[in-house]
Amino acid sequence: MDHRTNGRRRKSQPPCRNPRCFPNVLDTCTLHNQEDSVIDDIIALSNREPDDGKISLLLPHSVIREIAHTNTPNYVKNRANQLIYTTEVSLTQSEQNIIDDITRELQGNALSEKHANDALHLFEAIKYGTRYFITYDKRIISKAPEIRHLKGMRIVIPKEFLEIYRSLES
Questions:
Q1: What is the dihedral of CA 72, 74, 75, 79, to 10 degrees?
Q2: What average pLDDT does range 93-119 have in this prediction?
Q3: Residue 99 three-state SS
Q4: Which of 7, 55, 81, 125 could form a disulfide with 1 if both were Cys (CB 3.0 to 4.6 A apart)?
Q5: In this structure, what DSSP letter does residue 16 have?
Q6: pLDDT tens, 28-39?
Q7: Beta strand extents in the chain (DSSP E only)
Q8: What is the percentage of the chain residues whose pLDDT exceeds 70?
Q9: CA atoms within 13 A on the CB side of 80
Q10: How far apart are CA 119 and CA 125, in angstroms?
């Protein structure tokens, strides 16, 4: 008899889809459209108080070099400076294998270096239990159904993320 459930089996719960329950990862490509107020709205959600609908919004550590590049516009750097970066840690062999798998699944006939970076961004999101990876990257979006390591993480465009957040806000 399971004393924690008074002898009854618990029904399995569907994964929480509320963006406030888990961290959310923002791809750097979303920061580049200066006129995109949706991104500013999403970043503003990460600056709210916890009892006022705050979300956890992360940037993968693997984008730090992209943000720091001399050609990166200041408005992108300013947006990025409002966010929390993940921390670079050593990878186990099984983690490296997952990154390699994601790279192959994304690559198709494109340049591998770009997709190796995208795979690392996705892996970080998976590793930190992200429910939403927010991006405008069309290849990532189109390849999402083929990426077997997503583990319940959804790849969404910023507008879709905001719609999900607002639908669960009440």
A1: 80
A2: 82
A3: helix
A4: 7
A5: P
A6: 899 998 888 999
A7: 24-26, 57-59, 84-85, 132-134, 154-156
A8: 86
A9: 26
A10: 10
* 100 vs 106: CA distance, rounded Å: 10
Q: Does domain 19-169 have CATH number 3.40.50.1010?
A: yes
pLDDT of 113 > 70? The answer is no
- Given the structure tokens 């494109």, which residue do they identify? 110
Task: Decide: helix, strand or coil at residue 150.
Answer: coil
Q: Which helix (H) or strand (E) holds 111?
A: none
**Are 59 and 83 in contact, with CB atoms under 8 Å apart?**
yes
Residue 118 has, within 13 A of its CA and on its CB side, a CA count of 27
Report residue 73: phi and psi, to 5°.
Answer: -60, 150
Q: Determine the 3-state secondary structure of 58 from DSSP.
A: strand
CA 150 vs. chain centroid, Å, equals 11
**Which tens digit of pLDDT belongs to each residue from 62-93?**
888 889 899 999 999 999 999 988 888 899 99
